[in-house]
């Protein structure tokens, strides 16, 4: 035998299974993470996940930053619904500082958070469509996500990584244009969502691809720490908005949709239903906001001079405002010592913030409970024995966001 | 009858006596600590007890207190009793030279990656974990970056000559 033979690793000829690297930069993973699949034909025998490709050490960075500078870090967790992360962080800080938030701010926050939830679910569900071979739905609804992004833009000036709001409220009041855009969205969106559902919900091909694909029982889901739509699809009606209400969610009337089998189809249906519920909440909140008249309609933040940046014209004309402005920007404000855990219902589940302060100017320790990170570990269990193409749908219907997983 | 923090505290004291201690309620969440050898016993008790039913592990992380000699690392469990809708926080402290804590993976599947993350950043050695290796950092890393001995850059440092950013 000549020496020109290609040298293969030992045992690779005799091996009957195939190893396949799905990711880290595979278009079907919709994010930077890797799955090392062991395949027998097209069936998955085992899956090993590698994550951390976009780990940015947010928890460490946060230990050197004053509170308001941590908000942009939270943007980059689940970047499909950044406003929920921002609001969650503000609510955590407000809990620590004991700030009382005016009702109008609560309602405005609810509007923004529910819009973000719709944007996130919309992406997730239409991507499931793409992975099952239906591109139309995805392209069609993008236009309406754009309407949501325009509302963000009107409120805070940016679109994807929003850095929306401040500790105590919003950076500025909602403009009449923002409300107009919201009205336009509320007017146009239900029709589109209905059409989107018509396209998928009873679609023969879609149903055959997703029913029974990647199922999980409620019990296993709880044991794996599932939260949010993925847990509800498995039949457990746990929702942070109802169980530990924040931002006046207890005043709204909405249903928690639950599934039964926890497969991709149920997850899809739960997310779709949740969008309807979010619309309901937005409408109620919008009605409540409109009830504020005169001076009350101009409230958009609480009085927390130590943390809320004063208006620019006050900074130039008033001594007090100038002092606070300087102190906030330079991060010279000592926080009360304490430890606080606050969670909000993110688009993927319970997004928790565990904040420990020792009385200094920066957090002593900050931990993000990222729902994606917690439930992605179940992926091996739910995709074992499935076909490769099913595994990809499962991946996208779990709504895994690499930014949230890696923090 | 709703489950209150007093009832939880009472039941824990009945079961473990003075080994569970440092009870507190920061922002309404019952917080307590136990010796680190007891962590699994406490978790199991909280899981199995027919009244408490703390069967959902919300979060698990570590905190480093370098000045706390002999108890430098704290492992913090956030548990949620979904049937009663009550949350508690449970801590165990460990020495940094032998940071061995029993793994909760047998009880909670979700603890798997949470413990890997805690090991990755703080070096807590979870005894009995099926696959204790780094998760977010590279495997070749030989230190635990979230410990306090690795400070981030001092904001006011002057020795760095960086014309671009005006320092």
Automatic annotation (TrEMBL), chain A:
This protein's record includes keyword Isomerase: no
EC number: 7.1.1.-
Membrane disposition: Peripheral membrane protein
ATP-binding listed as a keyword: no
PROSITE patterns for this protein: COMPLEX1_49K (PS00535)
Main EC class the enzyme belongs to: translocase
GO MF annotation list: NAD binding; NADH dehydrogenase (quinone) (non-electrogenic) activity; quinone binding
Localization of this protein: Cell membrane
Domain of life: Bacteria
SUPFAM superfamilies, sorted: HydB/Nqo4-like
GO cellular component terms, A-Z: plasma membrane
Reactions performed catalytically: a quinone + NADH + 5 H(+)(in) = a quinol + NAD(+) + 4 H(+)(out)
UniProt cross-references to PANTHER family, sorted A to Z: NADH DEHYDROGENASE [UBIQUINONE] IRON-SULFUR PROTEIN 2, MITOCHONDRIAL, NADH-UBIQUINONE OXIDOREDUCTASE 49 KDA SUBUNIT
Similarity comment text for this entry: Belongs to the complex I 49 kDa subunit family.
Subunit structure: NDH-1 is composed of 14 different subunits. Subunits NuoB, C, D, E, F, and G constitute the peripheral sector of the complex.
Role according to the record: NDH-1 shuttles electrons from NADH, via FMN and iron-sulfur (Fe-S) centers, to quinones in the respiratory chain. The immediate electron acceptor for the enzyme in this species is believed to be a menaquinone. Couples the redox reaction to proton translocation (for every two electrons transferred, four hydrogen ions are translocated across the cytoplasmic membrane), and thus conserves the redox energy in a proton gradient.
Protein name: NADH-quinone oxidoreductase subunit D
Phylogenetic placement of the source organism: Bacteria, Pseudomonadati, Bacteroidota, Chitinophagia, Chitinophagales
From TrEMBL, chain B:
Keyword terms of this UniProt record: Cell membrane, Membrane, NAD, Quinone, Translocase, Transport
Pfam families noted in UniProt: Complex1_30kDa
Location relative to the cell: Cell membrane
Residues covered by the NADH:ubiquinone oxidoreductase 30kDa subunit domain: 35-155
Record-linked SUPFAM superfamilies: Nqo5-like
Enzyme Commission code: 7.1.1.-
Chemical reaction(s) catalysed: a quinone + NADH + 5 H(+)(in) = a quinol + NAD(+) + 4 H(+)(out)
A molecular function (GO) term: quinone binding
UniProt topology in membrane: Peripheral membrane protein
Record function comment: NDH-1 shuttles electrons from NADH, via FMN and iron-sulfur (Fe-S) centers, to quinones in the respiratory chain. The immediate electron acceptor for the enzyme in this species is believed to be a menaquinone. Couples the redox reaction to proton translocation (for every two electrons transferred, four hydrogen ions are translocated across the cytoplasmic membrane), and thus conserves the redox energy in a proton gradient.
Subunit structure: NDH-1 is composed of 14 different subunits. Subunits NuoB, C, D, E, F, and G constitute the peripheral sector of the complex.
Official protein name in the record: NADH-quinone oxidoreductase subunit C
